[in-house]
Fold this sequence. Notes:
By secondary structure, this protein is mainly alpha-helical. It contains ten helices and three strands, in the order αααββααααβααα. β1 and β2 form a beta hairpin.
Amino acid sequence: MANLPVGTIVLIIVSLLIYFGLAHRILDRMRLTDKGALAVVALIIVGSFITIPLSRGLVGVDVNVGGALVPIGLSIYVLTRAGTAKEWIRALAATVATAVAVAYTSRFVGGSEPERMFLDPIYFYPLVAGVVAYIVSRSRRSAFISGVLGMFLFDLGSLVWYLNTGRKAFVAFGGAGALDTYVIAGVVAALLAELVGETRERLQGGPAHRGRPKELLEGLKKPEFANMLGPRPIPDKQAKTEKGGDEHEKQ
Length: 251
């Protein structure tokens, strides 16, 4: 495990969380089932071996399927499932803020010699993106969207800048495949939102009630691992009623 790249470790951890049902609330907000989420992870891994060259001129451009197209597609899907216009605006605003934060970090921290950074840019920038995406969006779904799309917007902005300045460069969208910035940024942002949100709810004795629909509050109050603990106990009175009904049906 110690010799594996960080991106691979992240995907393994995510797969285990999904398999053991520990990512249930995050997947619910993204409108994904466990099987659907594992399928996405599989697509990222398989797609990481497929790179599409778009340009080989002064500015070279590559797009990796697993590192870019799959997480971007998932983010767009999650965005289309957003419930309100307010959530759309918040997710898109967080996307822009994330891209600006990463660009600022790239300019004043990485500079022209990223090898002098204390952490590889492939991991440092998505960590910055994930933190900023959560702080601005403050929700699991919006955090994931803005983490992934923020990194994409940063790469797109870099491409436009290189083209306008005529500088020789190479831009790889999802260049490191499954190990790249888009996936790490989205996962970091979503996990931060889940961790902080869960901690806040526990400290305040449950989810905030003000301005939230009754159905949503009831869903948030349900035990996270109820489906892993077996069927819910039936009160004695209800059990007798159901038993009586079963006997009546048999007669």
